[in-house]
Structure to design on (144 residues):
């Protein structure tokens, strides 16, 4: 459903939210290990997310990535739109460019409902809400 880049971006943002809520910062090596991703790949992703204003970064010995308090209210949909665009929320389930209400593909109307449910779920899923579940080991971001 998501590109690999988007999957890593979502996992990294949730991990950063969990690790930096006390004001600390987290480095690329720790993020990559925490979400089971290649360091160079996550570094590129976070650089782009930083440019787009989703995550903050600071250079230097006490530097790293972090989220400001307001960023905890960001939704997973925000991340998806920045990384993968809005095709997941608007596109045809079969990938047809000419699919529309007046010219529907075979799954258009059923997929439209599913697409809307996915969009609503991602818009309602805020970064900050995952922290406690991770702390209680009810959810995970990395294979044990």
């Amino acid at each position: 459903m998501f590109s690999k880049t988007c999957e890593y971006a979502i996992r990294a943002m949730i991990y950063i939210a969990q690790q930096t809520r006390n004001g600390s910062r987290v480095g690329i090596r720790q993020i990559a290990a925490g979400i089971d991703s290649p360091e160079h790949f996550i570094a590129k992703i976070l650089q782009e997310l930083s440019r787009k204003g989703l995550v903050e970064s600071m250079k230097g010995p006490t530097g790293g990535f972090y989220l400001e308090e307001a960023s905890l209210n960001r939704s997973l949909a925000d991340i998806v739109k920045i990384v993968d665009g809005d095709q997941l929320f608007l596109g045809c389930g079969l990938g047809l460019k000419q699919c529309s209400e007046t010219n529907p593909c075979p799954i258009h109307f059923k997929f439209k409902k599913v697409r809307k449910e996915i969009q609503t779920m991602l818009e309602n899923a805020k970064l900050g809400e995952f922290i406690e579940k991770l702390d209680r080991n009810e959810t995970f971001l990395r294979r044990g």
